[in-house]
Amino acid sequence: MSFRLGFLLDTHLLVPLQDACTALEDELKAFLRLAKTAGHDLLYHPATVREFQRDSNLLRLQRNLLRLAHYTPLPPAETPCPWNKRDTPDGAACDNEILYALHCNAAHALVTEDPAMHARARELRLQDRVYIIQMAARWLETLHEPRACARPDSVDRPVRDLLPALSTPFFDSLRADYHAESRPWQFNDWLEEQAQAGQHAWCSMDAQGTLQALCVYVVADRILHLRALKVDLAARSRHIGALFLAAAFRHARMAACLQVQIQVGATDYFLQQWLADFGFEIRATAGGNTLLVKEQPALAPARCEHGALDYAIRYFPHFCTGEEIQSFLVPIAPEQHNRLFPDYLPQQGQLFVADTPPLSPIKQAYLCRSDLKDAKPGDLLLFYRSKDEKAVTSIGVVEHFQVAQDPAALASLIGRRSSYNCDEISALASRPVKVLLFRTAEHFPRAVRLDQLQKICDFAGPLNTIRPLRQDQLLKVLASGRT
Predict the structure, then answer these.
(1) 164 domain residue, yes or no
(2) pLDDT tens-digit profile of 103-123?
């Protein structure tokens, strides 16, 4: 083990970690096994002790305090949490202190199953370092057991092809949801209606061809409706949902849709928060369901008061291109391009390039040792695929730029945006490495060739290093890639 990560465990997580009585027992065991085998630190915050001590049940209190002996305490904070006020409730104050410790880099990641904690982390822009147990286990698999991290096969199929599997257990929860809502039709009948109407679905299968994830999509009145969305427990935290969302955004754009809509369970807080991170907003809640809407305006709206990055998230596929926005040509080799953009130029009927690791097609990390000095949220990255295509293919919007050298800090920074294993991260961090966290905004329908770039940007020879673009050059490249 070349470096150690510190995993801060939420108060409410410590009890099930010891009792192992939850539905995620296998994931708990996998997380603990990987963390302990690799020598990572499992930490708890002093606020956890205070929260346990508020328990009036003395027997349970003693039992919980004894459990803490299995983990390492964080030292008390040198400064009080600035997010707590006099009227902050005790429980919320403990959550704030734990998140503040993460903010101060007292730990590399926080693991919690508490939806309120995840929501608060999103408010504080810490969501990329806060994990549910399953996601934390998948991250450790990537670091230490990369062969275990295979992306399930994902395809676009007619709904009629799914009907033979309708009696399998995968559909049981979907049928139960329809029955519980007392809808005028049963799920089986509804799916057969979609098959007769010629509708399609994005599906993901395991190596044996068993259905693991599903999303039926229907376009009506310039709205893309995502229905019957389900990812089986065994397939979660492998970015399949992000793969479906990327396909949905791409399909909505091609079909000139103005909105993407999805209904989820009113109590499915994790899914609601995950969708919010991609620009979905809650519009209505009724009958046990919550309707979330993602706007996809045909014309670019007026500038967002919250900044260029929020603009890109809220109004995708639009992004800011004003004079205050920097833009860069970024050359990358085909192997790295395939890693970053698994959904670029998909093969017939597939949603991603074959034999790529299970990474998100939307939120990624690019690492380099170029002369780039700085990039701010909302700046644009135009990725140039070298060697084979020799063309600009894709655009990313910068979320964060940082120079890293400590391998644990680097691993924490890129998290699950990368497929680098522990040894690769240690090698990368042997010298200062520049990290660009970004979101994919667009793949050009027509890649901009090197000879076009040379003419637009007034340079000769190959493109071997990151190159800044002027505003007029950026607009010309965008026009060439979209025509």
Answers:
(1) yes
(2) 999 999 999 989 999 999 999
**Phi, psi of 128, rounded to the nearest 5 degrees:** -75, -10
Number of domains present in the structure of the chain: 3
3-class secondary structure for 215-258? EEEEEECCEEEEEEEEECHHHCCCCHHHHHHHHHHHHHHHCCCC
pLDDT digits (tens, 9 = 90+) for 134-188: 899 989 988 998 765 555 667 899 999 999 999 999 998 888 877 555 554 588 9
Tens-digit pLDDT profile for residues 34-72: 999 999 999 999 999 998 988 888 988 888 898 898 899
Distance from C-alpha of 341 to C-alpha of 264, rounded to nearest angstrom: 28
pLDDT value of residue 175:
86
**Residues 133 and 168 grouped into a single domain:** no
pLDDT attached to residue 192: 95
**Rounded Cα gap, residues 367 and 415, in angstroms:** 13
Q: What angle do CA 398, 357, 404 make, to 5 degrees?
A: 45
Complete edge-to-edge strand list for the sheet that includes strand 327-332: 363-368, 433-449, 391-404, 380-385, 327-332, 467-469
Q: Taking the chain, what is the end-to-end CA distance rounded to the nearest angstrom?
A: 50
Report residue 28 as tokens: 């708990």
What does the H/E/C string look like for 26-93?
Answer: HHHHHHHHHHHHHCCEEEECHHHHHHHHCCCCHHHHHHHHHHHHHCEECCCCCCCCCCCCCCCCHHHH
- 300: which DSSP letter? P
CATH number of the domain at 170, please: 3.40.630.30
HSE (CB half, 13 Å, CA atoms) of 416? 25
What is the Cα–Cα distance from 400 to 233, expressed in whole angstroms?
A: 31
Asked whether residue 367 is assigned to any structural domain, the reply reads yes
Residues with Cβ within 8 Å of 66's Cβ and at least 6 positions away in sequence, in order, are none
Q: What is the pLDDT of residue 286?
A: 84
Residues with Cβ within 8 Å of 468's Cβ and at least 6 positions away in sequence, in order, are 326, 327, 328, 329
Instruction: Tell me, yes or no, whether 50 and 25 share the same domain.
Output: yes
Whose CA is closest to 227, among 160, 276, 178, 295?
A: 178
CA 259/CA 246 separation, integer angstroms: 14
Tokens standing for residue 305: 């008061």
Low-confidence ranges of the chain (pLDDT < 50): 1, 19-22, 184, 346-350, 354
Cβ 219 vs Cβ 258: under 8 Å? no
Look at residue 325 and give its three-state secondary structure.
coil
Average pLDDT in the chain: 88
Which residue, 133, 148, 163, sits at the end of a domain? 148
What does the alpha-carbon distance between residue 119 and residue 114 come to, in Å, rounded to a whole number?
9
User: How far, in Å, are 338, 339, 345, 365 from residue 353 at the CA level?
Assistant: 7, 9, 7, 18
Residue 410 lies in a domain: yes
pLDDT of residue 145: 83
pLDDT at 463: 93
